[in-house]
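Subject — a protein and its fold
Encoding — discrete vocabulary of local shapes:
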Amino acid sequence: MEWNALLGSILTLTGSIFLFLGALGIYRMPDLYNRMQAGTKATTLGTMLTLLGIGVCHTEWLGQVLILIMFIALTNPISSHALARAAHFKGIPLTEKSIVDKLKEEENRLEVK
């Protein structure tokens, strides 16, 4: 087995594990905001590692894979943030276990002024 096939397989397996952990986090978390955070962080890293593993296995695809990884690294956190703010604006409640809601505190502070 060539070194790039072995390294690519290890990277792809590691990415798959992160994707699984992201799915498990979505299942286990108590509310939308925690689920979104768990899913975004784990799936961003998992997808990037899986794609990198494919790029290492198939070196002719490495350029396109790196472009996809950059795209995911830029868009996934931004879209997750936008969805979480929209959910908060819509009034979807946090879990009772949440201690601090900084966005609500900031909104209340701006209303007082």
Remarks:
- The helical segments are 3-28, 32-57, 62-90, 102-112.
- The mean pLDDT is 90.
- The first helix runs from residue 3 to 28.
- The chain has one domain: 3-112.
